[in-house]
Description:
The chain is α+β, with helices and mostly antiparallel strands. It is built from 4 helices and 6 strands. Strand 4 (about 75-80) and strand 5 form a beta hairpin.
Amino acid sequence: MSQLRVLVVGASVAGPMAAYWLAKTGARVTVIERFPGLRTNGQSIDIRTTGVTVMRKIPGMEAAVRAKRPNLEGLRFVGDAGQIYGTIRMTGNPDQQSLLSEYEIFRGDLAKILFDLSEDNENVR
């Protein structure tokens, strides 16, 4: 039986993640992207619930995400005169998240981490 060949269109966040898991099954994966380089811009992404579960199944990914997360103290509610009404902080427990995620990361940093996961895989090109 011939080896499954898969074409993944898009090398941002979902494409490299799909390529990683497909290659783990033994598929030969080709990833194409119309943009000439890796897109490193974009807003922050919160990895939560199922995303945390999946991330933990990929060796080294949780540490890579933690190393790139922005240094956030919390979310403050401030009045017109500068008075602080309250602050929402991360819980410190990645399994019990608040409005702020323990795994907040800029989109470009996440795209680079996911791209790097498959870069050396002989089944991904």
